[in-house]
Amino acid sequence: MLEINKNYNEGNLETLKRIPDNTLDLTVTSPPYDNLRMYKGFTMDWQTLLKELYRTTKEGGVVVWVVGDSTQKGSESGTSFKQALFAMECGFNMHDTMIYQKSTPPLTHNRYEQNFEYMFVWSKGKPNTFNGLREPREYTDNRKSKAFGRNKDNSVDFGYSTQDETRLKRNVWRYFAGGGANDKIASKHPAIFPEQLANDHILSWTNEGDLVYDCFMGSGTVAKMSILNNRNWIGSEISSEYCEIIGERVKKASEEKRKEKEIEAPTLFNELN
C-alpha cells in the first residue's frame, strides 16, 4: 500500500499496481489526448489505465475523466468516445456526461470552434456520495411558480409557490481555461487544470477524509484542492520537472490549511468558555 498524501514521480501504472483493490473514493484527472501536447515524450496506455482505475476504485466510487478530441484535416478524432465506451466495458457505469465549457474566446477557422471538453463521470455501481452543488437561479425576484395539491375534499388546489433563490447546478460547468493562473507556482505548467473544476468535483463526490487520486497530476491542482477541502490524496506524475511544481503547491496549500486551523482553534476555545 502506498503512503497517502504524497505525489509519486513515476508512471501512473506503476502507482496503481501498488494500490489494493477497492481503495479510491474518487479519481479526478485530465489525461493528455491525441498528442495535442507532447507530454515529455511519454505515451499513454489508456486501456490498461482504465482497467486499473476500475480495479482500484471502491464500490460506489467515481472517476471524473476530463478530455477532448483533436481535429485533424477537418475531422474530430473521437478518442474521447472510445475511452468512454471502453470504461463501460471495464465495468463502470456512465453516470453522467458533463461539459467543461471554457470561457476563452474562440479562434477563427472554417468551422465552429470547440470551446469545451467532456467531463465523463464514471461510477462503480451507484455513487456512494453526491453532495449536489447549487447555483443562483436566473430569476431571484420572488417569482412564483405554479404548484398544485389536493384539498381535504380531494379537489385539486392550484396554487403558487415561491421559488428558492438557488437550484441544483446543471451539468454544463463554465470555467476560465487555466483557472488558477493567479497561482504563480502553477503558471510554470503549460496546461493548468482549473482549480474550481477540481474543487467542485471533489466536493460533489467525496466527504472529508476520503481518498482522491489524480493519475496525471500535472501542476498539482487536485492535490491542492484535496488538502484545502480536508481530503486525502495520491498523485502520479512522470515528469520530474512538474513534480517540483507539485511539491511547491502542496507545501503552500498545507501551510494555508495549518494557519486556518490555528485561527479556528482559539475561536472554538472561546466559544466553549
Report strand %.
25-35%
Average pLDDT: 85
* Strand and helix order: EHEHEEEHEEEEEEEHEHEH
Apparent shape: globular
Number of helices: 6
State Rg: 22 Å
How many domain regions? 2
**Sheet with the most strands: spatial strand order:** 1-14-13-2-3-7-6-12
CATH architecture of the largest domain: 3-Layer(aba) Sandwich
Count every beta strand, where a strand is a DSSP E run of 2 or more residues.
Answer: 14
The computed structural class is alpha/beta
Please report the distance between the alpha carbons of the first and last residues. 43 Å
CATH C-level label of the largest domain: Alpha Beta
Helix content: 25-40%
Low-confidence stretches: none
Briefly summarize what is shown.
The protein has 6 helices and 14 strands.
What does this structure look like?
With 273 residues, the protein is α/β, with parallel strands linked by helices. It has 2 domains: 6-133 and 169-272, Vaccinia Virus protein VP39 (Rossmann fold, 3-Layer(aba) Sandwich); 135-167, no CATH class. Helices cover 29% and strands 27% of the residues. The chain contains 6 helices and 14 strands. It has an 8-stranded mixed beta sheet. Strands 4-5 form a two-stranded antiparallel sheet. A hairpin with a 2-residue loop joins strand 4 (71-72) and strand 5 (75-76). Helix 2 runs parallel beside helix 3 (79-90), helix 4 (195-205) packs across helix 5 (221-228) and helix 5 runs parallel beside helix 6. The protein is globular, with a radius of gyration of 22 Å. It starts with 5 loop residues before the first strand and ends with a helix.
